[in-house]
Amino acid sequence: NLPTEGKVTWKAPSNIALVKYWGKKTNQIPANPSVSFTLDACATTTTIFFTRKKDTSQFSFDLFLEGKSKEDFKPKIQVFFERIERYIPFLKSYHFKIETSNSFPHSSGIASSASGMAALALCLVDMEKVMNPEMGKDFFNRKASFLARLGSGSACRSIEGDLIQWGEHKPIADSSNLYGIKYPFKVNPVFKNFHDTILLVHKGQKQVSSSVGHNLMHNHPYAERRFGQAHENMENLKTIFSEGNLEGFIKVVESEALTLHAMMMTSMPYFILMKPDTLQIINKIWDYRKDTKIPICFTLDAGANVHVLYPESAKEKAIQFIQDELVAHCENGHYICDRIGNGARKL
Ligand code: PMV
């Protein structure tokens, strides 16, 4: 019962890791568990127009980003299709026109791979659901997460909200290396409406792609200890989340961010991904927190931009501080106000 043609659209958010995924085994299996806030404003919207074709010997697709043909992204999609073909058997039976757009500006230094791969995976599972209508919501989300992981590891945390765990962490029977799950433990309401203001310190292309970065964890002198630490931090967060312990949260989250960068500084070859402005922002956040006791903290991706995290109760003061002190360190004064979100949705 394959339809001859049709279209499907999904909007998927980005996410920001609190315990970082850095290092992987084959088949996009993470070397350690991770947990992230799903974001809201930073998102990718993807429409797939599909048309049945006769020749089923190869993949066929066109790709448009913000209306413009994107030849340079095609190899990534080709690899993704090759990886997922055995889970999406109709993939070679269609020509796909993939139209995608991001809510955040071009080359803002914000990676679109998590939201982009999540949106694409959701479109494909949705097509499968047309052919297999009895597919339940849990299976749908898990399959979308499973496929998204094969596109970009962290994308598997971009299907649902608002706090997502990916990776086996004993003794959580339900946790999996294959897909993200909703955080399975009690979470105090203080962590349910967090804000993330993303300071765009450096908007250029990332100096080190995440796949190169993950590979640098092979034969890394501190890898095993780092993976152990991630497990310990997952364990620590359990109590921190349930008690609403903001002080504990800040310690884990900032330490995770700096550890991620420390791993890159101590790999071979080695990299410094922070910029002078990144360090100045971090120092200003520390000074401000010390002076005001306001629970504002930072985390980092594998780049120079800073994610400033704070609870709803600190919103007014935090935004004032960010505007007065931190925005001056952003490239062209650019920053994005985001917050914890509820996951992807069909449009
Ligand atoms: O999903 P990837 O392969 O782009 O890796 C993402 C890695 C970090 O963003 C640095 C950390 C994380 O857990 O998201």
UniProtKB/TrEMBL annotation:
Gene Ontology MF, one: ATP binding
Lipid biosynthesis as UniProt keyword: yes
GO BP term, pick one: isoprenoid biosynthetic process
InterPro entries to which the protein is assigned, alphabetical: GHMP_kinase_C_sf (IPR036554), Mev_decarb (IPR005935), MVD-like_N (IPR053859), Mvd1_C (IPR041431), Ribosomal_Su5_D2-typ_SF (IPR020568), Ribsml_uS5_D2-typ_fold_subgr (IPR014721)
Diphosphomevalonate decarboxylase-like N-terminal domain sequence ranges: 12-174
The keyword Ribonucleoprotein is assigned to this record: no
Protein known as: Diphosphomevalonate decarboxylase
Organism (species): Flagellimonas pacifica
